[in-house]
Amino acid sequence: MFFTSERRQEALSIQVARFLTVGIPLNVMHGLAAILPCASRILSLSWALADLGLLTDEEYGDATARLLGMEFVMTQFDSSSLISDFNLASWSPSRWPAAQVLRTFSNPPTDLMSLFKIFVQFAIRLYRESITPETKCSIPSTFLDIFSERPEGMPLIAALRRSSNALFGINAVGHKRFEECFDRWDKR
Do residue 182 and residue 113 come from a single domain? Predict the structure, then answer.
């Protein structure tokens, strides 16, 4: 069968994206970092493939989570990637790849506003997940700790609390639990 170079590249990208979503040992993943310097471009193409329906959102999220876990600093990610990161880490902020993501959020040169927007969308999604209420509270508290260490983070945190009703929309239970969690965090 004859494939154009574009079709061949698309097929290869699908294979690479799917390869990144399987349970690969960490040492192999780090080896991939050396041989895939264009992983961010592959991930961008993977996003396009997901948008076309050739990859599922879950496959895309898992691929992004794994790249973040390998500390690809130029990897673009969103709230679904964070859900995948924490899911892969069994919802533990101290386990791979969640710990690496938290280091990215803790890095002072990173764009605080962009990270905060991702966090807000992540928190909204997190409160729809089927995980324990303690976990739903501990993970956002970890992020709030990180943001509170930056002087420009406190006004963002205060604005989040004021606007949480509008952000959570019809998820009244998630909103209530988020506010309870936020208030516990704020009193510490």
Answer: yes
